[in-house]
Amino acid sequence: MIWFAWRQQRFQFVAATGLLTVYTALAFAARVDVEFATITQLFAGYLTVAVCMFWGAPLIARDFETGTHRLAWTQSVPRGRWLAGKLGVAAAGTLAAAGLLTALVTWVLPAGASDPGSWYHYESHGVVPLARVLFALTLGAALGALTRHTHIAMAVSVPLTGFVQLGGARSLREQVDLDYWALQCAEAGVYLAVAVALTAVTYLVVRRRS
Fold it and tell me: What count of other Cβ atoms lies within 10 Å of the Cβ of residue 202?
């Protein structure tokens, strides 16, 4: 299943590599000219939307559309193992991309180089970017399983991800009086809890699929 999931997700891995190449160029530019530093941090937030729309949404929906899920389920592969293989490979890829991106941004703006309380610094440093991409991946997968249509899942994923990232998380963050790392851990914990819940929803939908 790992090899099969990798074969299916090669395009996403290549696209993530290309995106990281662009971020690397921005990071080097920011080291030369500080004007690029804020741009680099702002672009870091787009990874969440890209993961949900282009990696999570097609993950399950595309198999339902093309009927390839039937091939896997009739080859002595339990549905849980099928889902675990696909989500596991995708999670490894998205976490690697988010980790490299966070490391790049941290290298551009080390501790003390900018205000940790600013939203663009907060959302591009620490553990929040890692937990957020897992949430985005599982949200896209759940939407794909529920709609069973790749394009519909991709279209719905954009406003939902934007609302959670820009509206819900940021507004709640402003109402909580915690220091930087305590707030990072709390928000990351919420993202991970929601990601587990979304994974459970996806599994239940897959189990009920005839």
Answer: 25
110: tokens are 């080390």
**Tell me, what's the pLDDT at 150?**
92
Residue owning tokens 């069973």 = 148
Q: Phi and psi dihedrals of 125, rounded to 5?
A: -125, 165
The gap from C-alpha 89 to its chain's centroid, in whole angstroms, comes to 13
pTM of the model: 0.86
Q: How far apart are CA 183 and CA 14, in angstroms?
A: 33
Which pLDDT score is estimated for 52?
93
For residue 71, the model assigns a pLDDT of 73
Mapping DSSP onto H, E and C, the string for the chain reads: CHHHHHHHCHHHHHHHHHHHHHHHHHHHHHHHCCHHHHHHHHHHCHHHHHHHHHHHHHHHHHHHHHCHHHHHHCCCCCHHHHHHHHHHHHHHHHHHHHHHHHHHHHHHCCCCCCCCCCHHHHCCCCCHHHHHHHHHHHHHHHHHHHHCCHHHHHHHHHHHHHHHHHHHHHHHHHHCCCCHHHHHHHHHHHHHHHHHHHHHHHHHHHHHCC
Measured CA to CA in angstroms, residue 146 lies from 52, 185, 199, 207, 210 at distances of: 15, 30, 12, 12, 13
**CB atoms inside a 10 Å sphere around CB 208:** 9
**Tens-digit pLDDT profile for residues 97-115:** 999 888 888 887 765 555 6
